[in-house]
Amino acid sequence: MDLRYVRYAMAIARAGSLRRAAAALHIAQPTLSEQLRALEKEIGVELFSRSSSGVTLTEAGEAFLAQATVALDAFERAVAAARCTGETARLGVADGLADVAARLLSQLHSSRLRMAPMGTAEQIVSIADGALQAGLGYAPGSLPRGVGRMLIHRFPVRALLHREHPLAQYEALSLSDLAGEPLLMPESDAVAGARRFLEAFVRQRLHPRLGPSAAGHDLVVNMVQEGTGYALCVREGTTVPDTLVFVPIKEDVPPLEVVFLWNRQADVHELVSAARHLARSG
User: Fold this and answer.
1) Half-sphere exposure of residue 17, counting CA atoms within 13 Å on the CB side?
2) pTM above the 0.90 mark?
């Protein structure tokens, strides 16, 4: 059976008229009538009752289209699955989240995944337009419709300092203690990161001193080790040299949130399940 005939019958049922269905399908009405007759002949029953006002489904037509709709949907899913076979999904990974990506990958049975270094904002745009299937980033604000978001982990903000820094001896630091020291951030987070940290200082009526930015989180760690300044963007638990130390902040600073983002229309069920596992395990 030609599946086009089934689609044509569905269009006729929706339109209630051969003329309107032909216009919607962009084919000639006589051609549509001929193909409907061919379908009815193949099935052996009439699917529609004809009248001057249009067409209506017969009892047999209702039974046929109810099952044909299910079968056609299953066929289209099978075609989509076949076309996806061998395709490689792309996972965007924001700077500083390579360890989280490695944990995510360890939960996957399939190896058809390619990681792409990409900032959170760029991930969101690429996921929304379908160029990227999923990503790991830092908690954004609002998201476009169709982009899913799942919180993977929430990290309290800690100051990363060299052990020989005078402030490293304290059990906890206030933002006023840090305001005069150079704050180091990666270029990838320079705008969003600066805003969130600056707001924390501003709430305390403080004006932090911004130090030089680095190309990435790893270089921020190197700069802290060299004594260039301190960092707030490095997650506690990240592997850092023994010469560095994390010191808690006394004030309430919004935590660093790592999120999994994905296109809700993409076939990334295994990735979503792996992300849920990470979220549960913390």
Assistant:
1) 7
2) no
End-to-end CA distance of the chain: 53
Which residues are registered as beta bridge partners of 173? 249
Residue 246, beta-bridge partner list: 160
Tens digit of each residue's pLDDT (9 = 90 or more) over 78-122: 655 554 545 567 899 988 888 888 888 888 876 577 888 888 888
| Contact (CB, 8 A) for 92 and 126 | yes
Q: Which amino acid would we find at residue 147?
A: V
CATH topology for 3-84 is: Arc Repressor Mutant, subunit A (1.10.10)
CA distances from 69 to 19, 62, 187, 267 (A): 22, 11, 52, 22
- Domain boundaries in the chain? 3-84, 89-154+257-281, 157-254
**CATH number corresponding to 89-154+257-281:** 3.40.190.10
Place of tokens 């929430």: 154
- Characterize 9-21 residue by residue with b for buried, 16 or more Cβ atoms within 10 angstroms of its Cβ, and e for exposed: bebbbebeebebb
Beta bridge partners of 228: none
**Using CA atoms, how far apart are residues 55 and 15, in angstroms rounded to an integer?**
9
